[in-house]
UniProtKB/TrEMBL annotation:
Residues 47-381 form the Polysaccharide lyase 8 N-terminal alpha-helical domain. This is Polysaccharide lyase 8 family protein. Gene3D superfamilies: 2.70.98.10, Chondroitin AC/alginate lyase (1.50.10.100), Polysaccharide lyase family 8-like, C-terminal (2.60.220.10). Residues 1-20 form the signal peptide. GO terms for molecular function: lyase activity. SUPFAM superfamilies: Chondroitin AC/alginate lyase, Galactose mutarotase-like, Hyaluronate lyase-like, C-terminal domain. Residues 698-763 form the Polysaccharide lyase family 8 C-terminal domain. Pfam families: Lyase_8 (PF02278), Lyase_8_C (PF02884), Lyase_8_N (PF08124). PROSITE patterns: TAT. CDD domains: GAG_Lyase.
């Protein structure tokens, strides 16, 4: 049984030297030096625990099998390691014949990381119990040989870097220093000094000299980890202090560029929503550094670290649903399915990206308040219990440390699983929204002048072109929780992503440029929300296309109403709005009916559904077309490879069946429109009943000027004013988004936002009797009640698109 680290363990780890010194009657200065040496030993022991895990029994499952697998992997690596000029393993050459920063050089520099990573696996097998190689002298010798070889050949103070900066400043040194901690007692002083010189060469103090470029957000945390471990391994207090202090710029909220925003957004690479990828790295890295330094001479005391604790539920939790982290905030990581170099063929997906975040939350909780820690453990247990599609404790890609943390939460009888919340979250600063209802959750991905259409780079995510064109993701609680996990990204038609409006104009792989280079020059993107419902809108301009469209989503209790208008394009290619593109897996015989008539369950099949009023996909949900619509539908088998969308991906062909519904706007639409309502989890009977209830939904406007709906039974009105004008009982003097919720107690809540962040004044009139305004923000400069309500807003440009909430008493 691994136990939490203790002072006794530290003394044993450091050979008992501290005990000997303190009992020998040394001078005070010598005692101080001994105490300092002991503190470095303490930090090494703590980091070993963070790497190897604690609190689990090596002879119990799932750990027994995982430890045996670790041993088998280390044995295989040991057997294939063959030090030679230009490589440590024959399949991982770092001898770049033309070192520069092109894609080929990226591959060679990545092999430097591969070498240290493999040595790290061997070192863990050496130190970890139950691997069959624990303390093996031959394995130790091979690890030390590998370290010396990489130092002599490629990672040393005389080597110029090439390829990817990340390999030299983060990837390689992190693995190297981890190995140094694990093997510290077996390293000579000369070896430690050499490896520290190499790290100092590639990661000088200046790497964190300014909070810019590649030294922000998750990258900054990674660099701090390198500096801190360099200080621990090399007994350098200044390095550890620098790492601690260099973390501070990560904590404060930002208003542009990389980092956390007050609305919960997280951006990396300046323009990319990255909560689920780089954000995961940052959260995990901060948790490890907080844990490492807690109680030491270098403890992080910056009060702003509370912002990170607050972000657990403000930034990360909203994007985790039943164990998965939503793909709309994973950037190019969505294309990392099965790697060509992975002999185990373990597929990365939204669930396997979610599990490390859950582990990081548990670790971070150890340094948070008791209340935060208790609640977060409840959140994690809930996510674990509901992740039927990909149980975290069976995740073969999850490290032993994370596995042990999650198992600890699972076995903790004092922790009660917390249910998924209901509500809406609008992340205006990264053009994302999440909507959660009992039994399902959804998210919307958009793009604006600050947020890219999509990110490609390093040969990854080559066809994510339209993921920011209003993609509407949704998941069920006990169904369809693996909708985007089951080889969705390499097999889906990238021009028909659900919810998007797109031109089928052919785009080249990586169109638009690397690292989120392309953003649309449109400002109206965002919406208004009261925290439960929302009116969301996107003025869409197509990537490398003449396409223009106005898109709105009204997020309600059991429905998301989707409107489109003003759709124009002169590309000469078909323009389509994809109502749905459901991944039905390898077999794909799910029932499909339209207006009560069953359609064929075999593929290929296609049809034009003229005058369709509703449709239903068995086991998924329903779709209502108010007033009827012409919709095209098809079943098809699509085949793709991970290498199609990621140059490092597996080349094995994969086939999946899809059921698609889309509105064909033609090749030269001048004012295309669409209207449909998505009902996740609804039965066919519920869908038919909603369609038959023609008074349930009233479309107030669906034009290039305004889009709005009213649902009288919910007391809901939502209007997106693309321009000033009138829709139903609402009149606005300028562009804005408005949502009104009338309550049964005679009150109403009005939410108004300026998605353009540009209005210096706005007048909103609601043609409804109001007797009093009971609460209003400072932006409302006047409110006139009576037979109608007139609200005058001052400058809204500084509100960052956030909803301004006004409470009123109805007349």
């Amino acid at each position: 049984m691994h136990s939490p680290w203790s002072r006794r363990a530290f003394l044993l780890t450091t050979g008992g030297s501290a005990l000997a010194l303190t009992s020998s009657g040394l001078l005070p200065s010598d005692e101080a030096a001994a105490a300092a040496a002991d503190e470095y030993g303490t930090l090494r022991a703590k980091w070993r625990t963070l790497i190897l895990g604690e609190g689990f029994t090596p002879t119990a499952e799932p750990f027994k099998s995982r430890l045996a697998e670790l041993g088998a992997t280390a044995r295989e690596l040991r057997g294939t390691m063959a030090p030679a000029t230009g490589s440590l393993w024959p399949d991982a050459s770092y001898a770049d014949p033309d070192p520069d920063t092109d894609q080929e050089s990226y591959g060679y520099s990545a092999n430097v990381v591969t070498g240290y990573s493999r040595l790290g696996t061997m070192a863990q097998a050496y130190r970890q119990e139950g691997t069959g190689l624990t303390g093996d002298a031959g394995l130790k010798a091979d690890i030390l040989t590998g370290l010396d070889h990489l130092y002599a050949e490629i990672y040393n103070e005389n080597q110029a870097r090439f390829g990817n900066w990340y390999s030299w400043q983060i990837g390689a040194p992190q693995h190297l220093l981890d190995v140094c901690v694990l093997m510290y007692d077996q390293l000579s002083a000369a070896q430690v000094a050499d490896y520290c010189k190499a790290v100092d060469h590639f990661v000088p103090d200046s790497a964190v000299g300014s909070y810019t470029g590649t030294s922000t957000g998750a990258n900054r945390v990674d660099l701090c980890r390198v500096l801190a471990l360099r200080g621990v391994v090399g007994a350098d207090s200044a390095k550890i202090a620098l790492a601690r202090d260099a973390l501070s710029p990560v904590f404060p909220y930002v208003t542009s560029g990389d980092g956390l925003y007050t609305d919960g957004s997280f951006i990396q690479h300046t323009t990319v929503p990255y909560t689920g990828s780089y954000g995961s790295v940052m959260l995990g890295g901060i948790g490890m550094l907080f844990s490492l330094l807690r109680g030491s001479s270098w403890e992080v005391t910056d009060a702003k670290k509370q912002i990170i604790f607050d972000a657990v539920e403000k930034a990360w939790a909203p994007f985790i649903y039943n164990g998965l982290v939503m793909d709309g905030v994973a950037g190019r990581a969505i294309s990392r399915g099965i790697s060509a170099s992975d002999t185990k063929k373990i597929q990365a997906d939204d669930h396997r990206r979610g599990h490390p975040i859950m582990s990081a939350v548990v670790l971070l909780g150890q340094g948070a308040s008791a209340a935060e820690n208790a609640r977060w453990r409840g959140l994690v247990k809930g996510w674990m219990r509901r992740d039927y599609y990909s149980p975290p404790l069976s995740d073969a890609s999850l490290g032993l440390t994370s596995l042990a943390r999650l198992k600890g939460v699972e076995d903790d009888t004092a922790v009660a699983a917390i249910a998924e919340p209901t509500g809406h979250r609008l992340f205006a600063d990264m053009a994302r929204a999440t909507h959660r209802r009992p039994g399902w959750a959804a998210s919307i991905s958009m793009a604006d002048p600050r947020i890219t259409y999509y990110e490609t780079g390093n040969g990854e995510n080559l066809r994510g072109w339209h993921t920011g064109s209003g993609m509407l993701y949704w998941w069920g609680d006990t169904y369809a929780n693996g909708q985007y996990s089951d080889a969705f990204w390499p097999t889906v038609d990238p021009y028909r992503l659900p919810g998007t409006t797109a031109s089928r104009k052919a785009l080249a792989d990586a169109a638009g440029g690397d690292w989120g280079a392309s953003m649309p020059d449109v400002k109206w993107v965002g919406g208004a929300s009261d925290g439960q419902r929302a009116s969301i809108g996107q003025y869409l301009k197509g990537l490398q296309s003449t396409l223009r469209a106005k898109k709105s989503w009204f997020c309600l209790d059991d429905t998301i109403v989707c409107l489109g208008a003003g759709i124009v394009c002169t590309d000469g290619a078909a323009v389509e709005t994809t109502v749905e593109n459901r991944n039905l897996g390898p077999t794909g015989t799910t029932a499909f009916q339209v207006d009560g008539a069953a359609k064929p369950t075999t593929a290929p099949w296609s049809a034009t559904l003229t005058g369709a009023r509703w449709a239903h996909i068995g086991g998924h949900g329903g779709y209502v077309f108010p007033g009827g619509a012409t919709v095209k539908a098809l079943r098809e088998q699509r085949t793709g490879k991970w290498s199609d969308i990621n140059k490092g991906g597996a080349t094995t062909a994969i086939a999946r069946k899809y059921l698609t519904m889309y509105v064909d706007h033609g090749t030269a639409p001048t004012n295309g429109t669409y209207a449909y309502a998505l009902m996740p989890g609804a039965s066919a009977a519920q869908t038919a009943a909603r369609s038959a209830d023609t008074g349930w939904l009233q479309i107030l406007a669906n034009s290039d000027n305004q889009q709005g709906v009213s649902v009288p039974s919910l007391g809901f009105t939502g209007v997106n004013f693309w321009f000033g004008g009138t829709a139903g009982k609402l009149t606005a003097s300028a562009p804005c988004s408005v949502q009104i919720s009338e309550k049964s107690d005679g009150t109403a809540v009005i939410c108004v936002s300026d998605p353009m962040r540009a209005q210096s004044s706005l007048t909103l009139t609601w043609n409804r009797a109001v007797s009093a305004v009971t609460a209003k923000p400072a932006t409302v400069t006047s409110a006139v009640t009576g037979a109608s309500l007139k609200l005058t807003f001052g400058d809204l440009s500084g509100t960052r698109g956030a909803s301004q909430r006004i409470s009123v008493k109805l007349g």
